[in-house]
Amino acid sequence: MRTAPLTAQARQDALDAMRGSAERGNELDVLVIGGGVTGAGIALDAVSRGLSTAVVEAQDWASGTSSRSSKLVHGGLRYLQMLDFHLVREALTERDLLINRLAPHLVKPVSFLYPLENRIWERAYVGAGVALYDTLASVTGSRRALPIHRHLTRKGMERLFPDLRHDAAIGAVRYWDASVDDARLVETIIRTAVSYGAHAASRTQVADLQTTTGGAVTGAEVVDLETGEHIDVRARAVINATGVWTEQTESLAGAEGGLHVLASKGVHIVVPRSRISGDTGLILQTEKSVLFIIPWSRYWVIGTTDTPWEQELVHPVATSADIDYVIEHANAVLSRPITREDIIGSWAGLRPLLQPQVKAGTSSAKVSREHTVASPAPGLTVIAGGKLTTYRVMAKDAVDFAIGSRATSLPSITHDLPLVGAEGLQVFQRQARAISQKYGWTRPRMDHLLHRYGSLLGELIDLVDADPALAEPLKNADAYIGAEIVYAASHEGALHLDDVLMSRTRLNYEQADKGVGALEEIADLVAPVLGWDAHTRSTEIEAYRARAEAEDAAAQELDDVEAVKVRLRAADVSPMLGDTTAAAGTKPGSPAGKGSSGPVGT
Fold this sequence. Notes:
single chain, alpha+beta, 37% helix
């Protein structure tokens, strides 16, 4: 397939297309609000049915929940306790589809140990549950993607995870799921949608929904947050996929109906892989949530928490108390306890918790255990709930619901549509040795590049061939080569240093300095691609430094209220989100009103 790059010009072309369509009196078939994994999936589902489609996002792609997850693609082992076999099978089907067909470069198998404290009843109980988990994966109708579970003795467990405390368990069950770089998955889905003809614009905020006198939604007024320009977009169907901003987006229609969504904060910490000796992950039950110790790239990701969040939604932060909680529960099973000094990064994300009741006035709704699709007003579809693993099912349900009877003649085909980077992956895997020898890349470097780009690695190589210096690692962030930084701006839609360090790379939490030491070098690589002058380059560097300092300071606070106050000392990077009022969603220079409670389109 033709792979379209995400560039600043492509973004502008998308906005021009949205504006031009409205000016000509034409309507898009579908306008998607929200550029997380659900919105990205909806855009791909819609455009692949032959529908004219646009998707807008108020911040960077995946900047909310979808870049701050546990980075797992899994069936949901805990749902077996609730006897929800259909839901588990659905998630396992999607997990295996991603591994086998849709994104084998991005989604990789990872095993976990479930430590056992009782030799007889617990081994039988947990073993039966994991056996059922494997059985449900075997009946998904696709080729089995992962090995079946195994029971381990204490010695077997200790061989796989030497740093598991000797008295923490009498043995374990080892089972398999998968991991993914969540932000890269979203960016890849968006890019796939654009390659099939979707119009996609990040940092584009929905200021209002357009309605008829009868209350039907016919489009939206969007604001280009890079320039402040207002654009009218007309669409037959508008789909709200804004996660924790669901109710704020619904309110723009002036309708009473819709879905209730609450935000819950989950925090993860990152420690170097060398700090904990183990070849597999761990899953532990805590009094508040499930705690994972996950092998991820060169690190361990440990989390998560589950606490109500009542602060502003753009900048959730990990507090000192959150970090202490995660450390305490990890140390309950580690023979070499970790300390604050071991932590090189952390992040906080907000889960959109769908409340069971649907607001009065909602015309109809499709409800599953994990997600709900509803219509609070004609022309407006809302979807909320769900999880990263089942994004494709959520997208299918949302588009089916939005287009009604047309879904019969235009069924979803995304189950058979590989994401960009998947087609031709095996060719590059077989050429890996020759490529690494030609460019002086080590085997770990090649694994890193293939995992991130798949067959899109050929585009990176083109950059290196044009400028051989780009094959070299960054001086102060040697996990990445220069070509990856240039590619983030030339092909992956990065508009700011924030975008490069937060999601195109993960330097914000992969290095103790949040990547600040590499800022000058990164800015030098990005500036020519994005056409920055010296002033813009300096402004971008200072904005990211301020962000890093504010995040570090916020993590020293004990509670959410004080932590957010500290975090908001750093202004947002988009010119039109330059103060805390604008960051809260109010259009700059206007009084609080419709849309003032959150940045819609996130």
